[in-house]
Amino acid sequence: QVQVVESGGGHVQAGGSLRLSCAASGNIFSINYMGWYRQAPGKQRELVADIFSGGSTSYAEAVKGRFTISRDNAKNTVYLQMNSLKPDDTAVYYCKIQRDTHWGPKYIDWGQGTQVTVSS
Question: Rounded to 5 degrees, what angle do the CA atoms 85, 91, 95 make?
Fold first, then answer.
């Protein structure tokens, strides 16, 4: 009953910018965590950036200073502004959310991914 949908990926040249969006919808009581992960071909999925319900953020060292994560609580949406893109940023980017329920259990949901390709 919950959908997590990423959008905004594309193909850009090195030095360009993209803005990814991730919107969660459905039976959501509360979201306490949203994060962006990425997986390049032949590599493990890795954390890119986190944002928590209180607004605190964290970033992988490889993207620090270039990427910015933000959220719109009213829309249950998280964004990833990616500037100064490098070929090493090429990957499928996935959105992850952790949601609370009124009855207690917490759930983790993943989006289907959006492709980001950066050419040199």
Answer: 100
